[in-house]
Amino acid sequence: MKKFFALAAVAMLTASSASAHVPEGMIFGAWNWPTSHLPNLDGDISEWNVLPAELWLEINPDLFAVDDGSGKPVDTSDLWFRFAMGWNDELDRIYYVYDRFDNNWDRDAGGVGCCGQDDSVEVGLDSDHSGDWFWQQEGQSEEEQLRTRGRQAQTGHYRWPALEPFGWYWFWMSTSDWHDEEPYSCCTDSFTLDGVHGSEATIQAEWYTVGWDDFNFAGPGESLQHDFVEGEIIGAGLQVVDNDNGTEEDPKTWKWVLGGQADIFGNASSFSDFILLPVDEANLPTAVENDSWGHIKASIAQ
Ligand SMILES: [Ca+2]
Ligand SMILES: [Ca+2]
Ligand SMILES: [Ca+2]
Ligand SMILES: [Ca+2]
Questions:
Q1: pTM of the full predicted structure?
Q2: Which domains does the chain have, with CATH numbers?
């Protein structure tokens, strides 16, 4: 954790707004994917192996807790995952990667949790690090509520394979129907799944989204997209949903939250801080490997 504390000192000098640093005192790093080395979003996450170990956030009690405050112990035979964030300056994208083992893969879009959150991962993104609530507030008119939801931070459940009617990226607080398509996010098929509903499963997924300083469900033209720049601190909230806890009669959903905050669903002040790192030339793949990536991408494009 030494490196994170060092980064935290940098953050205190450069952060443009107050931050909660959740979990306390920590700031995480987002890997810089230069445009020449973008990950191939095919569900084979091996290109992410170039990331230094400290950029991977793995389930452990120092980082993650169930959001009900119960202090449930981590049991990696029930759920194991690791997650990392990347970014690209030119395309202004945030990339995510996620690798999960689950002893009971719940994909029937029913039961506890309602509406198909199932065994998903939810990531909130506060690109301009404004903090504060992005869920409707008491006293707002219906129109104001619609406009407030997701306006200055966005959150959604990513579910592979896609679950209808909400698709692979369920931006549950918004009526938007355009946010989950390119060039705003991708992809509905960028995963590898080994397992079926009701059985043990592993899944790997890699995907991107853009960020919005002012999101308007009406359309991208009415919204203001964020320009990500090197060295800036962004806010992100991560929760991994495991739907198979409790008993058949009394099923329970556990949400493993980075930092453990219960209000992460709609309060960006409970998000964690990520710094957008410079390009790490020393750890980028060699030119030969890059060539082979180019060939792979070209063959897919044909
Ligand atoms: Ca890949
Ligand atoms: Ca489980
Ligand atoms: Ca940029
Ligand atoms: Ca499960």
A1: 0.88
A2: 2-301 (2.60.40.1190)
